[in-house]
Request: fold
Amino acid sequence: MTDPADLADRVLAGELRLYELDEHADAETAAAARRHLVEAETGVDLDAVADYTFDADAVDANVENLVGGAQIPMGVAGPVPVDGGAADGEYYLPMATTEGALVASVNRGLSAIRAAGGATARVTDSGMTRAPVFRVEGIAEAERVVEWVRDNEESLREAAESTTSHGELTAVDPYVVGDSVFLRFVYDTKDAMGMNMATIATREASELVEEETPASLVALSGNLCSDKKPAAINAIEGRGRSVTADVVLPREYVEEMLKTTPEAMVEGNTRKNLIGSAKAASLGFNAHAANTVAAVFLATGQDPAQVVEGANAITTMEVREREDERSESSSDVSGEQTRPANRGDSEGDLYASLSFASLEVGTVGGGTKLPTQSEALDVLGHAGGGEPAGANADALAELIAVGALAGELSLVAAFTSRHLASAHEELGR
Reply:
């Protein structure tokens, strides 16, 4: 058996490079050699890093220069009933985080939602994008390229889909800036998050564009996609899943469980999440939706860098008149019709919603196959490929939306009741 210390010495002597260790030993031994080298060079004990549960041979698609694993505490919030287009039932939500009070906050919101009978959630749009940029001589050539793309979308679809057995090209949207032509390809990637699938398919389609038009490919990603960066195009057009969760909380639950009122919640949401975000020119009009997105992403093996797009979310709240009061206010004692009471009346319930424009999730591929992440998806009951294809990723998006909505309810309630600081003090965080 190869000695990890000997391999580390060969790297230190310049005979091998870190990434070449896998060619001279199995993955477990190579990782041990890298730990030995790092320990020798830094004086740091990596015993905790060495204590991991995944198969070192099985993670070559997830990481390079493996040394071990990073452990993040995982909690669970719930259960909560969800009426979704794909997620239908009662769920516990796994959350991996180092932020104290986060799971407790989401759990408080879920408790209020559960008392109200559950939340509703729906995926309203789906599509992973990749947008290459091409060089042309000028606007005349750009026009020729755009016209060709519009006339030959079926040919582009055939080229793109020849690289995948699952992905489907649904649209190609051209954008022209001077002598640059951007083509924003949109794909249905089913249960995969689909970034790699979209990239490979777009490369094939881009070669066809170069063959048939004057355009010359400059970059396979021209940042109009836009991936892992705040971008208005994703907030408007969407990327990944566009999903909304909503709930009506009876007034008594808001007062008893959240320790505030629907009116205070509405005002707090308006002044903080809407007006404050607008003044800041934020792309996210919410309190802390990315908190839940990040925690569930880490728990279920999503790409954590895409939490950026997951912050593209809008929280809305309003006071709604109760159904029985609405019917009573529709006519006076003489039977004549009267104007319905305003939704701001003092006896109404709280309607709350959270809409994500670009939640990029998958239940196959990437980190979803790692042991702890796979177990977390099993807890949700939506691991692997769905039936029909795409159903499991839709369900995951809906459950994240419900969890994030719970977090919004809890945080807005905390600052409108002035309990935010005291809650953190009480939990010692």
